[in-house]
Design brief:
By secondary structure, the protein is mainly α. The protein has a domain at 50-158: Arc Repressor Mutant, subunit A, CATH 1.10.10.10. It has six helices and two strands, in the order ααααββαα. A hairpin with a 2-residue loop joins strand 1 and strand 2. It is extended and about 80 Å long.
Length: 164
């Protein structure tokens, strides 16, 4: 005969889990939601020409920082080296970027926009500006300027090696 006791059973009712007290979402969550919304809208703009939001971002990085290596472009575009390698191939095949020797170090290869790549960015600049204006709707010019300063500071805090 066993000396073990039967399991204890409580008669207390199970409490329903109460939702969080309408806590503010974290800034990280809000920033991710903003990034996803912007990416979706950029995809809408560029889908008709077969360009992704990530490819568009890489082109704008090269516009601001020409002569980057593929690894540097990946870091500045916030993608992995493998993702960037695939993107570089696609953008080169479309004639939007070119790979050439670094003028400062002829042993190294760098990437830059082609004339077609620059024309594409120029052609869509106003549509992207309209998207940015929609994002900033309701903010005063001073608030939009402050937001730019704050976002730049947050970015610098997390990725100090990236160009400004």
């Amino acid at each position: 005969m066993s000396n073990s006791s039967p399991p204890t059973v409580t008669t207390e009712p199970i409490r329903a889990t109460e939702p969080a007290q309408a806590a503010e979402p974290t800034l990280l969550y809000m920033m991710k939601q903003l990034e996803l919304a912007v990416r979706a809208r950029l995809e809408d703009i560029f889908r008709p020409i077969g360009l992704t939001a990530l490819q568009y971002t890489a082109l704008t990085v090269l516009e601001r920082h020409p002569n980057l290596s593929s690894a540097q472009l990946a870091r500045n575009s916030f993608v992995t080296a493998q993702t960037m390698a695939d993107m570089v191939t696609a953008l080169r095949d479309r004639g939007l970027i070119a790979r050439r020797r670094d003028p400062d170090d002829l042993r190294r290869f760098v990437l830059g926009l082609t004339d077609d790549g620059q024309r594409l960015l120029d052609r869509y600049r106003s549509e992207v500006s309209v998207l940015e204006a929609a994002m900033l709707a309701g903010l005063t010019p001073a608030q939009a300027a402050d937001l730019r300063v704050v976002v730049r500071a947050c970015r610098a805090n997390l990725a100090p090696s990236l160009p400004r």
